[in-house]
Amino acid sequence: MPETQDPHVTQRSSAKFVYDFTEGNKDLKDLLGGKGANLAEMTNLGLPVPPGFVITTEACKVYLDSGTEPAALRAEVSEHLDALEQKMGKKLGQADDPLLVSVRSGAKFSMPGMMDTVLNIGLSDASVSGLAAQAGDERFAWDSYRRLIQMFGKTVLGVDGELFEEALEEAKQAKGIRVDIDLDAADLQSLVAHFKDIVAKETGRDFPQEPREQMDLAVRAVFDSWNTDRAKLYRRQERIPGDLGTAVNVCSMVFGNLGPDSGTGVAFTRDPASGHQGVYGDYLQNAQGEDVVAGIRNTVPLADLEQIDKASYDQLMQIMETLETHYKDLCDIEFTIERGKLWMLQTRVGKRTAGAAFRIATQLVDQGLIDEAEALQRVNGAQLAQLMFPRFDLGAQSEMIGRGIAASPGAAVGKAVFDSYTAVKWSRSGEKVILIRRETNPDDLNGMIAAEGILTSRGGKTSHAAVVARGMGKTCVCGAEELEVDTKSRRLTTQDGIVIEEGDTVSVDGSTGKVYAGEVPVVPSPVVEYFEGRMHAGAEDADELVKAVHRIMAYADRVRRLRVRANADNAEDAARARRFGAQGIGLCRTEHMFLGERREMVERLILADTETDRDAALSQLLPLQKADFIELFESMDGLPVTVRLLDPPLHEFLPDITELSVRVALAEARKDANENDLRLLQAVHKLHEQNPMLGLRGVRLGLVIPGLFAMQVRAIAEAAAERKNAKGDPRAEIMIPLVGTVQELEIVREEAEQVIAEVEKTHDVSLKLTLGTMIELPRAALTAGQIAESADFFSFGTNDLTQTVWGFSRDDVEASFFTAYLEKGIFGVSPFETIDKDGVGSLVRNAAAAGRATRPDLKLGVCGEHGGDPESVHFFHEAGLDYVSCSPFRIPVARLEAGRAAAESKGSDSR
């Protein structure tokens, strides 16, 4: 998220568009961009930074809004260029001893490689000989000139970069060499002429020879690069606001391509992969900065610099220590050595792996550089989630057969199966399986539970397969469209004609979306083993990463206000959730208890046309439901368990109308129609809905089918009574789904209270059962004050609330137009992944406030998928909710983010 802007920035930027490095500091990133602010900071620290100046992000914004630079910009640039020339004792591009500058992008947030840079600005036909004479190296001068034309031609003039690369390759082949440093001055002079011809042919103009024109065009090109496709895509991926603009850094050139006593490199104050302290980085002799990035020559480890140039190495090590202590974090550094003189070209807080983030945070606490609260802010839930998923051994040889959407991270290996029945059967026999379907539906739940991973050829990140898989912590790849899934023939066929038959082994990588034939070795996650209780963070042999995670999680748990519950439908999930730190169950979906063999009982209940048939179906279901709840209350003894009464779209429990119609039609044609099928088809037609998600479900089903909710409430109450009489501590909360008006809730509550009273009398026990509702319809949110009169708690069902607020069908919209919306910037992220704060979030805030105005002790929670989303957890903390509920696997993430939200809030209050 954007940092709080310096209150003086607006005043300064309105009058000034250019700042010398000596005028800025690291806190002016909004104005000077990250690179410029840090160059200024290093200048202030007395470190060897080449002189230069920064054109502000405000100038870029004016340019992007109007298509032209601010009127005052040219004069300000001229003023700072004059000062730079005086400082350097030479003028930009002068013939005898030219000043050269680099023009580099620098947004507030690091966007490495996404925007443009041009080096060696100021070189021309007139000044190249002067540079050669000044440097005493003709080859260096012509090498620098060809680099300028190549970079300028591609970046500023829009020439296809391949044309320059091909010309360079031809020159090397003609000379019989492999690397460009073996080209001599004459070769490079010829190459410059060739490059200029390419520019003239492709653009219709000669390469500009006037130095100031070069610089002005390069500045404009950097501004334009803010809105290139790659930059916009990166911002969407990293969720960087699109209206920030980029600063432009104009810096006097220092040269790493002046011979073997010169070079360029990148250094890290700690290993960004592991977090370990040491000497990490790369160095390349006789090179400019882009050579390291482009990989045109092999670099040497940074440690080798000690033998190449010990004085520069020792100075660099000292500067690295200074920067890390000053920034109190891992620093990423770019440097150049020019004939034995070390120059610092950039520093920034370095990107790191998830594991390194946790290790570094605790290391800095131990070193006294930061406190625990700051360490908590240095990590995030997304990083923790990465550490929890198993992963494939990337060093292993493997055959990729396809790729889809990375829907639920992890690495899963198993035998391919094409239906849930086989998945369950083989799993019970000890086989590990991958369930492969075109798409999944609720009937596949058992197979999904049995499978190691799920692969579908259709659907996206919010499809049924993806949502359920994430909830269970299952690896899932969806929408692998290049794979043809034939469930009847039980095979999968790739575009290359590779066939995977049922029983063949496949490997699915939910972190990348890649699918492999055969078994790819899996590396287990020690972090999950820690959360599961199989590894103790205090043990001598505990993994260093686990110790770091344990320390930060312990602090997060101490400071967080939000409690974290689990979405769990059975005792196994509940037990795992408790091991992961769940403080109760926030959502038990009872419809999941009615799938499989019990589905026929529910079907008979829904289709019953007499009271006798209905009572018979209810009497069959009651003991099964009661047994389910007894197991849950045992697993969560002493903690709250919120049970949502039956809430499926009706079609999930009815025969498929098309299949049934075909069966009846064929039977009638044979003149052997079954009377039961005819009656069933008539009943299904009567109950058929065009939009089942907005039809007869939730509280509506409970009101239309007499005795349904009463049976469920009785099962809950009897299970709680038996548990309490067994000296247990059941804490059941009964949740009524899809309420849109208080009258619905009043009717169900009255019936439920009567049932509870009967059970209390029968079992001679006092039960403290609470009754509340899901707020998942806009009308419920808008009338929350009235609904709170009959509710002990609210649980926001943000999945359906998002659907009904936006008018989206989650099963349909992602595949049809979400990609376009994300590409066009309408969405920064799917509203099903992160809560829409302005729309859905506004309803949540208002409903919470209205509910508590009516009932101050109203308990507030959320049980939609957003309960485990890091950014959404922060919103729920700010909105004043009491708890979030999420899948068991996401509980540690929610705990961490709840702690971060509390620490962040406390820090804001103190400021």
UniProtKB/TrEMBL annotation:
Quote the EC number: 2.7.9.1
Which top EC class applies here? transferase
Protein name stated in the entry = Pyruvate, phosphate dikinase
Any one Gene Ontology molecular-function term assigned to this protein's record: ATP binding
Can you tell me which residues bind substrate?
Answer: 589, 644, 776, 797-800
Q: Where is the PEP-utilising enzyme C-terminal domain?
A: 547-898
Which stretches make up the Pyruvate phosphate dikinase AMP/ATP-binding domain?
A: 30-66, 73-298, 306-355
Q: Which UniProt keywords apply?
A: ATP-binding, Kinase, Magnesium, Metal-binding, Nucleotide-binding, Pyruvate, Transferase
What's this protein's family per the entry?
Belongs to the PEP-utilizing enzyme family.
The cofactors it requires, by name, are:
Mg(2+)
The chain positions of domain PEP-utilising enzyme mobile read 431-513
Organism superkingdom = Bacteria
Species source reads Streptomyces glebosus
Q: What is the lineage of its organism?
A: Bacteria, Bacillati, Actinomycetota, Actinomycetes, Kitasatosporales
Q: Which residues form the active site?
A: 464, 863
Residue positions binding Mg(2+): 776, 800
UniProt xrefs under PROSITE patterns: PEP_ENZYMES_PHOS_SITE (PS00370)
Q: Which reaction does it catalyse?
A: pyruvate + phosphate + ATP = phosphoenolpyruvate + AMP + diphosphate + H(+)
